[in-house]
Amino acid sequence: MFPSHYKQVNSKIIKKIVEKIAQYEYKPLKIEGFIESAVLIPLIEDKESILFIKRSSNVKDHKGQIAFPGGVISESDSSPIETALRETEEEVGVKPENIEPINFIDDTITIAGYLIHPVVGLVRGNPEIFPNPDEVDQIFIVPIKDILSSEIREDPDRLSWEFHVNGITIWGATARILKNLLDISGLI
Questions:
Q1: Which of 24, 45, 117, 181 is geometrically suited to a Cys-Cys bond with 38, CB 3.0 to 4.6 A?
Q2: Using an 8 Å Cβ cutoff, are 154 and 171 in contact?
Q3: How many CB atoms lie within 10 A of CB 153?
């Protein structure tokens, strides 16, 4: 399903993440009554960063929240990967041909009733990135080293984390997904 030719990754930290994620056996969830969705965790190799968005006030749910690009799986999508790639292009303009999907990481849910399938993807080259104002207020390209040195508040009893990094707060499902990515990668 996923390619396994990651030898050409030049960044040491991105290579470590990609190698660990590619080998990971993720834990999919199937929960009746939840709306299935997918997000892309965009690893930007050239900048050793992860891309996040701030959702606009025009969207139905999660207004103003820091998130990964993504959305609801439509009937025309062949897989959560297709959803994640389609939504990433719609929200931030990065075309699917500039993204190399690596693997899924563990699914998570939201209190709003969404079941999220996170897809880790490597953004290749230097694609133009711009927010779709109907869905995205702002784009944040956050260096992984800044995430690793950020203030992290934990409440493991509630499976709750907050990352305070570069003036933004990453919380909720996005923080759980980010924490899972970092744990799997052996970075925290």
A1: 117
A2: no
A3: 12
